[in-house]
Design brief:
Elements lengths: L1 H18 L31 E4 L16 H11 L3 E2 L4 H14 L19 E14 L14 H8 L1 E16 L5 E16 L11 H5 L7 H22 L6 H7 L5 E3 L3 E4 L8 E5 L4 E9 L2 E5 L5 E5 L3 E3 L2
Parallel strand pairs: 1-2, 1-3
Antiparallel strand pairs: 3-4, 4-5, 6-9, 6-12, 7-8, 9-10, 10-11
Helix pairs in contact: 2-6
């Protein structure tokens, strides 16, 4: 009688678990998390908020989890939302350099128009990182209880039931590409309790981002949760940028100041934009000058490294690389 009661209780437990709402809600955020308590919608931008390059963090944390570089996830979020233009500084830049080399050697067709001065500048770098992740928190096998008391096939079925909680806290750091200032750190938290049968049937629901990114983000529990966490971090980042906290495009370039130039030959710094104006000092080839933005024809107003100000011919200075 006692054995029957235990078996009945175990069967009831298994039935309850089987009929319970599966953990397949889209990104199913844990309600106890202090932020990102619900999965938001992917933001949509009428025009890009800026141009960014994805920078790989020094700690290649994804390799320990059997995942690929999360750069693909961020590129997907940026493209689908229309909120960021992404410039490829990895494979894309390498291939572009190869095309430019072919053009310089004369191997490309006439009119190919591949050369210097065409690469778009990044206003910002975005760095995907992770604060912590746990791929198997509280992973208790129900088979230890039910599998030993249920007869026949029921025991095998219950023995395959497992509860697993995967969670992750991800970061996206926004860095000004010109000043290298760390502008903002967006955060995303995701946690999912997965009820699965042995091989992982009935896995997490996703919006398809993990599947499109590949590299384990749709094939593993922790990969799906990290996808959710980065999704929330990206939303946090866009909300910050939409609030007008950062400059973009020409504004970002202007806010960073004018880049330094170098003298290409012996050059006279004059008090006014005229060859007859009094001399302030002379520059040797390679000396630095700092344009103030004031111009008069080919004459530019510049400062030297000691703060002396005057005018030089723009024909004899060049941007310092």
């Amino acid at each position: 009688m006692r054995a029957f009661s235990v078996a009945a209780m175990a069967m009831g437990l298994a039935a309850t678990l089987i009929t319970a709402t599966p953990a397949s809600a889209q990104f199913g955020m844990d309600k106890k998390q202090p932020k990102n308590a619900a999965t938001p919608e992917l933001p949509r931008c009428a025009r890009p908020l800026g141009t960014a390059a994805v920078q790989e963090p020094e700690n290649r944390w994804w390799t320990e989890l059997g995942l690929s570089n999360p750069e693909a996830l961020l590129k997907l979020f940026a493209a689908r939302s229309g909120c960021l233009r992404i410039v490829d500084r990895n494979a894309g830049l390498a291939m572009r350099s190869q095309e430019a080399a072919l053009g310089a050697s004369g191997d490309l067709r006439r009119g190919s128009n591949v050369g210097k001065g065409q690469v778009a500048a990044a206003d910002y770098f975005i760095i995907p990182d992770i604060a912590n992740s746990d791929s198997n928190t509280g992973g208790a096998a129900l088979g230890a209880i039910a599998g030993s008391v249920l007869p026949g096939g029921f025991g095998a079925l219950a023995g395959g039931l497992r509860t697993k909680k995967a969670q992750a806290h991800t970061l996206i750091t926004l860095v000004d590409a010109r000043t290298t200032e760390q502008v903002y750190v967006a955060e995303g938290v995701a946690q999912k309790t997965d009820l699965s049968f042995g091989g992982g049937a009935g896995g997490f629901g996703t919006t398809g981002f993990g599947a499109a990114a590949g590299g384990g983000y749709a094939d593993t529990d922790i990969g799906k949760v990290i996808t959710a966490a980065y999704f929330n971090a990206f939303v946090d980042l866009v909300n910050y940028m939409q609030a007008g906290q950062v400059a973009t495009g020409a504004e970002a370039s202007a806010n960073a100041g004018i880049q330094a130039y170098t003298a290409t030959q012996n050059l006279i710094l004059r008090k006014t934009p005229s060859t007859s104006a009094p001399q302030v000092r002379t520059f040797a080839p390679g000396d630095l000058v700092y344009p103030t933005g004031q111009k008069n024809g080919i004459w530019w107003e510049v400062d030297d490294e000691n703060g002396n100000r005057g005018w030089v011919s723009s024909a004899f200075i060049t941007p310092r690389g």
